[in-house]
Design a protein that fits this description.
By secondary structure, this protein is α+β, with helices and mostly antiparallel strands. The chain has 2 helices and 9 strands; from the N terminus they run αβββββββββα. It folds into 2 domains: about 10-25 and about 130-150; about 35-125, Immunoglobulin-like. The protein has a 5-stranded mixed β-sheet, with no helix packed on it. A 4-stranded mixed β-sheet has the order 2-1-4-7, with no helix packed on it.
């Protein structure tokens, strides 16, 4: 029995959709990019105050102090580092939790020290989600197209 050309085309489309999805998507749900973020600390302020990364990113925060010894403590990740003028510090971690996390100066640096805070916002890994949506759309489209074609067999043409 010879294979049905319609079924072969359907299977070929599904294989192509899976291959495109595998190429477009990261290898795993938590794979991301390497992100280097430079934060400058000065009396009672971080610049930038808000840092945005994606879940799965490998994040390197480079803390540079311009006026006094400052620290950084990242809530939710329980990481800290201390920088002195001319001697930057680094925090290296995987952004494996989605949400907003406060970072604050961990070295008493003056009267307004308690207000020296910033925010790390870890968003969803959008490239992965877009690849999965594209894969689903191509697969559903192929099922619909080939399903309607095979349903017309034996019927009079429209």
């Amino acid at each position: 029995m010879a294979p049905n050309p319609s079924h072969l085309a359907f299977v070929g489309t599904l294989v192509l959709a899976l291959a495109l999805g595998a190429l477009a998507a990261p290898a795993g749900a938590e794979d991301g990019s390497d992100r280097v973020v430079h934060i400058t600390a000065r009396s009672f302020a971080f610049d930038p105050e808000i840092v945005r990364v994606n879940r799965g990113d490998r994040v390197v925060i480079e803390l540079e102090s311009v006026d006094a010894t400052h620290g950084i403590f990242l809530d939710g990740y329980e990481l800290s580092a201390k920088a002195e003028p001319g001697h930057p510090a680094q925090l290296v971690f995987a952004a494996d939790k989605t949400g907003s996390f406060r970072f604050r100066c961990s070295v008493a640096c003056g009267n307004l020290h308690p207000f020296m805070i910033g925010q790390l916002k870890v968003g969803r890994n959008l490239p992965l989600q877009r690849a999965l949506v594209a894969l689903a759309v191509v697969t559903v489209g192929a099922v619909w197209f080939y399903g309607t074609r095979s349903g017309r067999k034996g019927r009079a043409p429209d």
